Amino acid sequence: MHRFDAIRPFYDSEINQALHKVVNHPMMKALMSFTFPDVLDDVWKEQLLRTHSIRDFQCNFIYQSVQRVLEKSSNGLTTSGFENLEPNTSYLFISNHRDILLDTTLLNTALFEHNLTMTASAIGDNLVKMPFLNTLAKLNRNFLVQRGLTPREMLQSSKLLSEYIGHLLLHENRSVWIAQREGRTKDGKDETNPGILKMLGMGSDEKNLMDYFKKIKIVPVSISYEYDPTDALKMPQLMAEANNEVYVKDKNEDFMTILSGAQGQKKGIHIHIGTVLDTEIEQIKASDESSNKQIVTLAGVIDDAILSNYKLWPTNYIAYDLVNKTNSFAHLYTENEKSLFERRLEMRIDHDNPVALDGFLAMYANPVVNKLKYHDVV
Q1: Higher pLDDT pick, 74 / 101
Q2: Rounded to two decimals, what is the model's pTM?
Q3: Which of 41, 75, 261, 305 could form a disulfide with 274 if both were Cys (CB 3.0 to 4.6 A apart)?
């Protein structure tokens, strides 16, 4: 099992020692002061130092932190589809990706509330370079996806990651969350990268990869935010790409994005859990397609599930109408909602920069474009 040490979260036997190391860290104090504003430091510290498992840390601390985030910066979290899941059963959740930390913590919040198995979740090691964030990630059952490797190192890393995910799902009965592609979606177009599926299959010993994908119980997940709290922060990268430039992140950009995601206004948030891709995978297996073509087909099936179950908000309809200069969906939002959205646009985006303006609107409008592929009336 030592081969997973470079990427795995803490074992329960390591939790208490790790907490002793970070209990007095200023970032831990900031997190606990936010979560328990009326509790004395000595009280939460004592409770923290009595914690000996990831589940206890998540349920007694992280869950409470998420409740505070929802209370202070949203209209609450709504969910659907969780009744399709069985207790004490592991699933591979493949999800669209909007926010670095919230997507996974909100999913785990909902799984906890439905008495279902919580996930181990993939996170890029570039996001947890600060020692405290690395420790916090491991305390919260995150495993690391190694970035910035040579092609040869990437191949080895991908195989290790695939083996670890398979080990969690099939031997530890632990659900896993992974994004449908590397990085967060910044343009509102949610598409599964077949390379993710190829990576997942690298650790399989099944003759037909579809048999392995059926065994690990793939469940598509759709998450949507009425307001993306990091929308304006995504613009510089979109602008660089529009100008065919290489985008280089600022040193603390990821950390600031994590903070903005937690603190920024989100209004409505919805998570939909799809059904296990069982018959769909059987149909793909029965085809005469090559293995690569089958993987591409499966990626398309995952896309169909994520996009067709994606919950649209007034902000999406408003942006679509603004982009297309129509009132097609005016019956689905109020004038006040439109004014608030236009005010946000005005405050966050330079109107003299058409690339930024178009990018911001497209981020909210594209989910409607996606949805129209599946329904005549949205």
Answers
A1: 74
A2: 0.93
A3: 305
